[in-house]
Amino acid sequence: MRTPTSISTARCFMRKAVNRFARFAAGVLVVGTMLAPGGVSAQWAYVPNEKSGSISVIDTRTDQVVRTLQVGGVPRGIAISADGSTLYITDASRSALQVIATSDGRVLASITVGDSPEGVYLSPDGRLAAVAVEKKNSVVFVDTQRRLVEFEVKTRGDNPEHPVFSPDGRWVYVGAEDAKQVDVIEVAQRRQSHEIAVGMRPRGTVFSPDGQFAYVACEIDNLLVKIEVAKHAAIAQVKVGQRANGVIISPNGQQVYVSNGEGSVSVVNAQSMQVEHTIAVGRRPWNMALSPDASKLYVANGRSNSVSVIDTATRTKIRDIEVQELPWGVVVR
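and the corresponding C-alpha cells:
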C-alpha cells in the first residue's frame, strides 16, 4: 500500500518528466522550422507578384513554391531583414512601404511614402530602408526600428527606381529612369551631392563587394556602365542584351549579371567589362537574386509569370518555377 508521501513523490516526478518533455518538444519544433532535412539551414526566395498582390515563397533546396503570402495591393520592390523575419515591400496601390512578417504574411506596419514607390533597399546595418518614389522624384528613408519616415531627399533626375546603398552605408546611388544619370545621395548629410552621366534610362544598380565600383544597367542604350565610386564617375561600359534592366554581382566581385528584356541574362567580367556568356531565360526578365553560396541565380520573368534558376557554375538555366502574375523581383534569405 502506497503512503501519502510516496504518492506525492511520484506525482512530483511525473510533473518534472512532463515539463522536461514539453521543453524538448518545443525545442524540436523550433529547430524543425529553421532546419532542412539533414540539419541544413533552409533558404527561401521571396518573389513579389505585382498583378496578383502576392508573395511566392520558394524553397531553394528543391526550387519549388512552398507557400504564397496574399498581401494584396501592387507589390513591387522587396528587401528582407538580416534575420529573415521581416519583408519590406513597396505597394504602389497604397503609396506605402509595407512591413510584413515572413512567418505568416501579417502586415506589421504600413508607412506612407508617396505616389508610385518602386525599389526598396536596406542599409548595411539594417537601420534604414531607402525607397524610390517615382512621382515625387525623391528617395524616402525609413527608420526600420521605429517604422517611421526619417527623412527624404529630392533627386535631380526624373523617375528614380533603385536606391542602392554602398557597402559602407555612406552613399546611395539611384538611377533616373527618365534621364541619363545616376544621382548620388550622401546619407549622413541627407542631400544629393553628385550626379553621374551614364546611358539612357538607368535601371538596376549594384556595388562591388569592396565598394570601389558600381555597375548600372542602362535600358535604352543596352549598356552596362562601370562607375569608380571614389570619383563618382563612369570609367567603362559594354554593350549587353536588348533592354538591359536588372543587375547583380557575385560575392567575389568577379561576375556581373545583367537581365535583358529580350529574354536573356548577360554574364559580364567585372574587371575586363567583356560579356562572357549569354543565358536564355523567360520573357521580360527584371530583377534577380543570388543564393547565399552564389551557386544559383534566381531571375524574375515579368511576362512569363515564372522565375528562372541559373546554375552559375555551368552558366545554364536548370529550371523555370511557376509563380503568380507579373513577378517584379526576388530576394533570398
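(Above: one complete record from the training split.) The first strand starts at residue 35 and ends at 36.
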